[in-house]
Specification:
The complex is a heterodimer of chains A (268) and B (557). Chain A has 268 residues and is an alpha+beta fold. Chain A contains 10 helices and 5 strands; from the N terminus they run H-H-H-H-H-H-H-H-E-E-E-E-E-H-H. Chain B has 557 residues and is mainly β. Chain B has a 5-stranded mixed sheet, with no helix packed on it. Chain B has a 5-stranded mixed sheet with strand order 3-7-6-5-4, with no helix packed on it. The chains are: A alpha+beta (268), B mainly beta (557).
């Protein structure tokens, strides 16, 4: 076997493995899912509900152990052929492809129910922008640091409402742009001032403060430095540039959050 | 040597090992569990009480400054020399998620100078004197969430552990060879198992976990010889049973969750096994499960002989924030209003501290161990928090403290009878909760969470008589704010409290004040409950941090 042929075989094997992994990972055949939905609605929906979560006379199929344990419609098909006449479930003779599609639809739904990280947040723009504006310059004291025509101009264009809401509740963290970087390189990282016994002052970004040492990152020199602590010596003062945001967490009402979201989203 | 002598010698050689085996005590005599020893750590909490308090006094607040590293064991996960079992394929399926660097969340058992512990799919036997591996068992998984494993159970010569794909496996403790395995739950229903088996009499008590789909939770007793079921207790009622009135219908309670995913505690005199149950399903939406949803988020007492429920106390009626009650129900005898009482205390994930009478489950007191909570309308007449419906997930979002990880979590707390203080590490966190499944029959989690972060992370000491926080010791701070969080704790009669500082140090604190007395810079926060035992006249303190187990002792004289 030549090297080229080996390579092609390797690629073919790798793609087969990838396909298998993707199937397990919940990458469903969307066409089959769509056909399966039709099968469910037309054949099963009357009893089990249009979304298969149970109806007037039939149980929830997505919560069914038999369905959850099924692989590719095999167990489902066997069950359908026999039915459960004693419980009012008639036998069904579905063509194999329809059984497979119905199973694909059910498995896709079960997968989406089970994987909360895939849940889609719905419409959160329900607030009153005018009230949000009032809070911005009033109780929220946002205008002490921010301006709708300055740093926040066009912010509603830059971020989706959900991202916007996350940003004003807690601007720190998140992936940001470019490659991942250490937390102490975040522009909103905590700042620290260490006053040594000889009155020398060391300032920088706080990397870590424990009872035993303090580690400082110097923004000017990119150097990191640690200083051992002994009780309250040396003196360490930590400032969170986002303290204003943190102070609002215990104060926000949900309505105020919704209003602020609406206001900032309106800054197009 | 004459022939006769030679024959006798050979026969002697042949007989001797057999005789030795016959006389040899089992690795762990189950009777030891009834009189917890100081030269072994025979069960998850060291004893049945969950106090994680040791009477050992070789290491004290006076000499702890000299505590030094005795050995290090780094997890070996290679299959090369492992005993291999399991029903899964050679390459783990993608559905087996949550892999990553293996982390020691188990509290190792120690018997006869040997440590036994686990992480998902792995069990190790390590020499407690030297930290050298004796054997390693590897389980080929079929899937399941690989979030953690709390450890093994030991009965005689037999080890027991649970796998993420829900097998109850038994090994020979001496060799690490598998005896048998039994499937206890269906991994395709998103069950996964993390608990450490607890031995009571000739029974192994195990529980299942998993809350991705709406499946029922249960606890089982199994036979240590055959591995077969002795009883099974469902953590939600069935139609017609008491408790069924706390659910709208049979469908809701049959799919109502309540996973008993951590080990419980046991009072041999009362013959009651105490365990905390998990959250109801669907997790973040209560729309299809109106009512209190018994016995989810509850502390329950079961008769271990029958698996029958004796009493319950629900710490989060109708939970909609994933705050289970799985945290250790610690049992101790104390004095309340001048009267001696048999008590049970729990620092709960929902931010409250509860003290109950463990004979009957009657409420003694409820207090807050974390101040930022915003989800209740106060307490009812029996000290249960009353959930505020306005703080259940909504489409545009609600801001709730704490987040779903809770104000504390699974790492074992400690109760010290010398100080009368209950030690627990807490977090003041906030999250937005967005309802995403608006169907009348929501499923799974039904809502999305977006975390804001935490305003405080601190180690706290709670006076069990008043429920008041006696002292608070803030943990480390990093560029992001407060660091660390829930941690495993151990207190000793040597006036010491072992835990971490959230900044990668293993610390011995003064249990009376929270002042740090000693630390070791491990670089990673401890990830399990620390333990201590005597071996060859030396007191060892053993703790896991990430993928490494550390043993500390005073220098040899």
């Amino acid at each position: 076997m030549g090297r080229r042929k080996l390579l092609i075989t390797a690629i073919a094997l790798a793609s087969a493995a990838m396909a298998a992994v993707r199937a397990q990972d919940g990458q469903f055949d969307q066409a089959s899912v769509d056909r399966g939905r039709e099968v469910l609605v037309n054949q099963c929906g009357f009893c089990h509900g249009a979304n298969a979560r149970g109806g007037a006379s039939g149980p929830d199929l997505t919560r069914s152990e038999l369905v959850q344990s099924d692989e590719g419609g095999k167990e489902l098909g066997a069950f359908l052929r026999a039915g459960r006449p004693d419980k009012g479930m008639p036998a069904f003779e579905l063509p194999p492809q329809q059984t497979k599609d119905a199973a694909e639809f059910l498995h896709a739904n079960i997968f989406l129910n089970a994987n909360r990280r895939l849940y889609k947040v719905l419409d959160i723009l329900v607030g009153d922008a005018t009230k949000g504006a009032a809070y911005f310059s009033g109780a929220g004291r946002c205008s002490a640091c921010h301006s709708a025509t300055g740093d926040l101009a066009g912010i509603g264009r830059k971020y989706e409402p959900l991202a916007l809401q996350q940003k004003f509740l807690m601007p720190r963290g998140g992936r940001g742009e470019g490659p991942p970087k250490p937390a102490y390189m975040d522009k909103n990282a905590l700042r620290v001032t260490v006053t040594l016994p000889n009155r020398q002052v060391v300032r920088g970004v706080l990397v870590r403060l424990t009872d035993f040492d303090v580690t400082i990152y110097d923004l000017d020199t990119s150097a990191m430095r640690s200083i051992v602590r002994n009780g309250d010596v040396p003196k360490v003062d930590v400032v969170d540039p986002l303290q204003g945001h943190l102070d609002l967490w215990p104060k926000w009402t949900d309505e105020e959050i919704h209003n602020m979201t609406a206001y900032l989203a309106s800054l197009k | 040597m004459t022939n006769r002598f030679r024959l006798a010698f050979v026969l002697g050689l042949a007989i001797a090992p057999a005789a030795l085996v016959a006389q040899q005590a089992p690795v762990l005599d189950p009777a030891i569990l009834m009189r917890p020893p100081t030269d072994a750590w025979p069960t998850y909490h060291g004893d049945y009480t969950g106090r994680r308090y040791s009477t050992l006094t070789q290491i004290t607040s006076d000499n702890v400054k000299s505590l030094a590293l005795a050995w290090v064991y780094r997890l070996n996960t290679s299959q090369a020399l492992a005993n291999i079992g399991g029903e899964g394929p050679d390459v783990p399926p993608a559905a087996a998620n949550g892999f990553g660097a293996p982390t020691i969340k188990a509290t190792p058992l120690m018997a006869n100078g040997i440590l036994y512990f686990s992480s998902p799919d792995h069990v190790w036997s390590v020499d407690a004197r030297t930290g050298r591996e004796i054997w390693h068992y590897f389980w080929k998984t079929r899937g399941g969430i690989h979030i953690g494993n709390r450890g093994v159970g030991l009965y005689g010569n037999w080890l027991f552990f649970l796998t993420p794909d829900n097998y109850f496996v038994s090994l020979d403790a001496a060799t690490g060879k598998e005896r048998w395995h039994h499937e206890i739950a269906n991994v395709k229903r998103e069950y996964f198992s993390t608990s450490a088996p607890i031995i009571i009499g000739k029974q192994v008590i195990i529980g299942v976990g998993g809350d991705s789909l709406d499946v029922p939770g249960y606890l089982e007793s199994r036979d240590p010889e055959s591995g077969l079921v002795i009883w099974r207790w469902y953590s939600t009622p069935r139609s017609g049973q008491p408790g069924a009135e706390s659910w709208p219908n049979a469908e809701a309670m049959l799919n109502g969750g309540g996973m008993p995913w951590l080990p419980g505690t046991y009072d041999p005199e009362l013959n009651l096994y105490y365990i905390g149950t998990g959250n109801p399903q669907p997790v973040l939406s209560g729309k299809s499960r109106e009512g209190d949803n018994l016995w989810t988020c509850s502390i329950v007492a079961l008769n271990p002989d029958t698996g029958k429920l004796v009493w319950w106390y629900q710490v989060s009626p109708h939970d909609t924030h994933d705050w289970d009650a799985a945290q250790t129900p610690v049992i101790f005898d104390g004095v309340i209003d001048g009267k001696p009482r048999k008590l049970l205390a729990q620092a709960n994930r929902n931010g409250h501290f509860f003290v109950l009478d463990r004979t009957n489950g009657k409420h003694v007191l409820t207090s807050l161990h974390t101040d930022s909570l915003n989800w209740t309308k106060g307490l009812n007449s029996t000290g249960q928090p009353i959930p505020n419906p306005a703080k259940e997930a909504s489409i545009p979002g609600v801001l709730v403290s704490p987040d779903t990880n809770g104000a504390t979590n699974w790492p074992p707390p400690s109760f010290n009878p010398d100080t009368g203080l209950f030690y627990v590490s807490t977090v003041q966190s906030y999250s937005m909760f967005y309802l995403t499944d608006t169907d009348d029959r929501p499923q799974g989690w039904a809502a999305a969470e977006r975390g804001l972060g935490a305003t405080s992370r601190a180690l706290k000491a709670i006076d069990y008589k008043t429920g008041k926080v006696r002292w608070t010791h803030p943990l480390a701070t990093t560029a992001n704010g407060p660091a660390g969080g829930p941690m495993g704790l151990l207190s000793t009669a040597g006036k010491l409290l072992f835990g971490n500082d959230g900044g990668g140090n293993f610390v011995a604190y003064d249990p009376a004040t929270g002042k740090p007395l000693w630390h070791a810079g491990l670089g990673t926060n401890t990830s399990n409950g620390p333990e201590t035992y005597m071996l060859d006249g030396r007191q060892y303190v053993v703790v896991g941090a990430g993928d490494t187990l550390y043993a500390f002792a005073l220098p040899r004289p």
